[in-house]
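JOB MANIFEST
job_type = single_chain_structure
chain_count = 1
residues = 60
[input]
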Amino acid sequence: MQLKCPTCAKELEVAEDHPSRPFCSNRCKMADLGKWLDGEFVISRPMTVQEAIESDYDDA
């Protein structure tokens, strides 16, 4: 499966069982977590049921 790392935007081919998926590495995974913990990333409001239905979010 072809993905783009959400942290560094590197294009990569990863298997479904890749341990850091959707990130390219554990380093990018931890950088993302750090941004959430530092408050740099926040959820602005709860998602409505209609937004969840219409979302193209992949829960894989």
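[summary]
The CA atoms of residues 12 and 37 lie 26 Å apart.
The mean pLDDT is 88.
exit_status = 0
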